[in-house]
Amino acid sequence: MDKLLIAKSEPLWNTDKRIISLVGGLIVLLFALPHFGLNSFYLHLMIMIFMHAVMAQSWNVIAGFSGQISLGHGAFFGIGAYATSFLYVQYGISPWISIFLGMIVSGIAAVLIGIPMLRLSGHYFAIATLLIGISFQIIFQRWEWVGAASGVWVPMTSGDSWLALQFHSSKMPYYYIFLVFFIITFFLVWLLSRSKLGYRLRAVRDDPQAALSLCINVSNYKIIAYVISAMIMAPMGSLFAQYILIIDPDRVFNIEISIIVLLITVLGGIGNVWGPIVGAAILIPISEYSRIYLGGTGGAVDLILYGLILMLICIFRPEGLISFFPKNILERKKQR
Amino acid sequence: MKILSVENLSRSFGGIKANNDISFEVAEGTILGVIGPNGAGKSTLFDLITGYTKTDNGKVGFFDKDISGLSPDKISSLGIGRTFQKLKPFADQTLLENVMIGSFVKEDNIKKARDKALEIIDFVDLIEKRHHFARELSTGQRKRLEMARAMAIEPKLLLMDEVTGGVDQKTIPGLVELIKKLKKSGVTIITIEHNINIIMEISDNILALDQGKRIAYGTPKEIQQNKEVIDSYLGTVDAT
After folding, report:
1. Residue A137's closest CA among A53, A81, A62?
2. DSSP for residue A155
3. Is A246 helix (H, G, I), strand (E, B) or coil?
4. First CA to last CA across chain A, in angstroms?
């Protein structure tokens, strides 16, 4: 058969049934997991893994897909957190609605920040985003209307309430809510990576000059990536606020959030849809266990361990931990 | 019918006049070769036409439309493709993905964009390398990749910057054949070349630049006999 015809007859994506079964099996396992007698700590651990994996995936969209290193992504997490808590406390709006309002506000903030900032590139963009992230924290610390430095205390419902998104008797509902967001986000980002938009974002990342020659408006595509990324981050802030019910600027606009999502993505594998899952699954347990054994914030030992692992990864596995997996399992098959 | 008209184009960088009052026209379906010594302003001319560098003075017309001052993405979407002197492949993507990014300009459907990209890759004779990452390809193959990627936007005019530069002698005839094949497919081409034999063989007209100025414009035969071109670029040995 003609070589061109053979090439055209190849499937667009890797449709290996074993991989589909593996992913399907993992999803079933994650849904079944709480019924294997997971105690409250393990449910919390899994919730934190799901949450951080989604946050890292958000960062992966802007940094991994479009190549812009944002160091202030925590701002969108904070916006999401304040959207649900503040709107519930002030106006009684159900968090289910304000999750989406938080996404919209984050998206608008990303446009407003993105238009002037994305004219910058490389280190300058990174520094500017870092300052934007810090400035959000400072603004909210002084903004009386949203509780200033004391933040927002969400009044507890008398019992479990799906409408108010509050569960006091068990963490299991939170587990499933975070899991569903986690699966939906990964599915959407997986679709994005295989879409025309995904291809164009990677072109912007790899060589903006060449992308321009292919009718790609680089600035617009950077803003699109920034908006998508912000809109993925915001719901995690909203759900986290409902999970802990007390938010303040130091907690939800903390620069550490921006750094951790970066670390998870780089360690897992930047630019790869699966990287944030692997990164979160390894780093979050380290963080949580160091908190248990060393108390409080983990005595920053978790950050020391992160740093150590990061150095090892940069030296030996610059493509991240995901590179330990055979390429044809997780990526489109690259036939040689 | 003229596809491109350049009128009094000028651009300075500091005190250096990279392009100084350059004018010429290109007829549809022809190949214009651009020659000149290093620093003559050939690549700057490409950057001015494609919007990568803003003009100080002058006008660039594409068919009847004034495209001076438009951004590169707008100019490419009008149907002007280009390759780069310093190659710019999307290194971490496969050859197929590189070309698909181009074919998405005219095609939204992924399968159709993929199939179109494959046809172009076949046209540039690299079908067996389609799943190789761009960074794994040789210089000659990357030049073909850039041509394929530019062709994928279905350009009416294609600007190629030193297609045969930096590749081994064995690869050159294939690239020359490819340029001829491209012309046959109806694409108008402007090509910068240092290899004078190639430029004489493939061009319908030649524009000669020196120190940012147009020193000659004409058919290969006219250029070969032009005294100023001989003095500044061809030299007496090549001219005989």
Report:
1. A81
2. P
3. strand
4. 18
Give just the sign of the alpha carbon dihedral A310, A186, A226, A61.
positive
Selecting from B77, B111, B114 the residue whose C-beta is nearest the C-beta of A215 gives B77
Residues of A in contact with B89 (CB under 8 A): 207, 210
DSSP chain B: -EEEEEEEEEEEETTEEEEEEEEEEEETT-EEEEE--TTSSHHHHHHHHTTSS--SEEEEEETTEE-TT--HHHHHHHTEEE--SS----TTSBHHHHHHHHHTTT--SHHHHHHHHHHHHHHTT-GGGTTSBGGGS-HHHHHHHHHHHHHTT--SEEEEE-TTTTS-TTTHHHHHHHHHHHHHTT-EEEEE-S-HHHHHHH-SEEEEEETTEEEEEE-HHHHHH-HHHIIIIIHHHHH-
Q: pLDDT per position in chain B (240 positions), as tens?
A: 899 999 999 999 988 999 999 999 999 999 999 999 888 999 999 999 999 999 999 999 999 899 999 999 999 999 999 999 899 999 989 999 999 999 999 999 999 999 999 999 998 889 999 999 999 999 889 999 999 999 999 999 999 998 888 778 888 888 898 899 899 999 999 999 888 889 999 999 999 999 999 999 999 999 988 888 888 777 665 444
What secondary structure letter does DSSP report for A148?
A: G
- Hey, CA dihedral for A86, A90, A96, A102, is it positive or negative? negative
Q: Quick check: A217 and B94 CB within 8 A?
A: no
State the CB neighbour count (10 A cutoff) for residue A2: 9
β-strand pairing of B205-210 with B31-35: parallel
Contact B128 A217 (CB under 8 A): no
Query: Closest partner residue to B111 among A12, A203, A334, by Cβ?
Result: A12
Three-state DSSP class for residue A215: coil
Can you name the residues that pair with B59 across neighbouring β-strands? B7
User: What is the Cα gyration radius of chain B?
Assistant: 18
* ipTM field: 0.91
The single-letter code of the amino acid at A298 is: G
Element (H, E) at A247: strand A246-247
Domains of chain B, earliest start first: 2-88+155-239 (3.40.50.300)
Phi/psi for B169 (5° steps) reads -60, -35
Nearest by CB to residue B110, choosing from A3, A12, A334, is A12
Pairing type for strands B213-218 and B205-210 reads antiparallel
* Per-residue exposure over B35-47, b if at least 16 CB sit within 10 Å of its own CB, e if not: bbeeebbbbbbbb
Domains of chain A, with CATH numbers? Answer: 18-26+41-330 (1.10.3470)
Report long-range pairs for A40-43 (Cβ below 8 Å, ≥24 apart): A40/A170, A40/A171, A41/A292, A43/A170, A43/A171, A43/A172, A43/A174, A43/A175
Tokens found for residue A46: 């899994």
> Residue A134 is inside which H or E element, if any?
helix A122-142
- Through-space distance between the first and last CA atoms of chain B, rounded to whole angstroms: 34
